[in-house]
Design a protein that fits this description.
By secondary structure, this protein is of the alpha/beta class. The chain contains ten helices and 15 strands. Helix 4 packs antiparallel against helix 5, helix 4 runs parallel beside helix 9 and helix 6 packs parallel to helix 7.
Length: 368
């Protein structure tokens, strides 16, 4: 009797344990399945404060410069003036066969002796894709994101080139800092949204301080991108901004010419893609053409997705088809003044082709 009761008790206990294990195991699995993914760190929101001054160059610049090639160190540590040049024919084809003797350079109307003239296809690229996410961009933004992803995949060379993704309204949002990681860049582009749509009542009679996302600060965004991101990179890299916006600035404390001067001082070329919703908002083509041409870039005004894709493709081709011109200025004064530069074609046969030359139209001399 005792043995039967003991056997019965053991059997019952075993059944209870097995049932408990069978029941709890799926529950643990289901609990594991619904575990939330790791949280995304808060995005860095940046606004230029009134009277804010530029940052000093990062110490990383000097460290990275020392590990560069001898030729790159010479370009940074001497008084050479550097100009990136692009030559395009009437059919918008890039001219890649220019020689030093085909061009002439003047600085403040004084002829300069060219010491370096070479195809600039191998220096690392440091790019910032700057995307307007104000309400005027709500309609074209999906196409912009597709084109930006394709551009990143096509132009960046792993372990050599870097890009950052920055969106902006009345404030800039650093979606992804400079990286060569394609996955991080694609994810950052996917995160870009119009935070406050056009029909949202939060933007009725609201101030910039109360809700910056209802405003558009293009020139502030350019300034903080140069200051916070690109100016902190090695000077041996080619720095560029790809700016997607309609050009209608409503809130910047930075003047457009100040943004241009700041980009020029930091050797940043700006490529503008004028895009928006023309049925509801204006596109300021004059402002975008001005900031691009004065920094040595180009401007595009796509009317559809095909033209948007073509604009990105042309920027990509140009970044791989530039010439580097370097010379020691005949004006040796280190006075910080602006020096106007002009590049002309001297080869008679090439002059007949009426090539279009794209380059930064000047630079600021060093001080001290």
């Amino acid at each position: 009797m005792f043995r039967r009761r003991r056997t019965y008790f053991v059997s019952t206990l075993s059944l209870l344990l097995i049932t408990l294990l069978l029941y709890s195991s799926p529950q643990r699995s289901r609990a594991q399945e619904v575990q939330p993914p790791p949280t995304q760190p808060p995005l860095k929101r940046i606004r230029r404060a009134k009277g804010e001054q530029p940052k000093a160059p990062s110490p990383v610049q000097s460290t990275q410069t020392q590990t560069s090639s001898t030729e790159d160190v010479v370009r940074v540590d001497t008084d050479l003036a550097n100009i990136l040049l692009t030559a395009i024919d009437k059919d918008k084809r890039f001219i890649t066969t220019l020689r030093k003797e085909d061009v002439r350079v003047t600085e403040d109307n004084a002829p300069q002796e060219i010491s370096i003239f070479e195809r600039e296809t191998d220096l690392p690229l440091t790019l910032a894709i700057l995307i307007d996410t104000s309400r005027s961009e709500e309609r074209p933004l999906p196409d912009e994101k597709i084109a930006a992803r394709t551009f990143v995949d096509s132009v960046l060379r792993p372990e050599r080139d870097k890009a950052a993704i920055i969106s902006f309204t009345g404030e800039a949002v650093l979606q992804e800092s400079l990286t060569s990681d394609f996955g991080k860049l694609r994810a950052a582009i996917n995160r870009v949204i119009v935070e406050i749509p056009g029909d949202d009542p939060r933007c009725e009679n609201v101030t910039l301080e109360r809700e910056p996302r209802c405003w558009t600060g293009i020139w502030d965004a350019v300034w903080v991108t140069v200051n916070e991101v690109l100016s902190q990179t090695p000077e041996t890299a080619r720095r560029a901004i790809i700016l997607l916006t309609d050009g209608d600035d409503t809130s910047s404390i930075t003047k457009r010419q100040e943004a241009i001067d700041f980009a020029v001082k930091n050797n940043v070329v700006i490529y503008s893609i004028g895009i928006g919703d023309p049925e509801e908002y204006k596109i300021d083509s004059k402002a975008l053409r001005n900031i691009s041409e004065k920094t040595g870039g180009r401007v595009f005004f796509p009317q559809n997705k095909a033209e948007l894709d073509a604009a990105f493709a042309e920027i990509q081709a140009e970044l791989r088809s530039q010439y580097l011109i370097a010379y020691t200025p005949s004006n040796h004064k280190r006075d910080g003044t602006f020096r106007q530069v002009k590049v002309e074609i001297t080869n008679p046969d090439l002059r007949k082709q009426k090539l279009r030359l794209l380059y930064r139209q000047g630079y600021y001399a060093k001080k001290g």
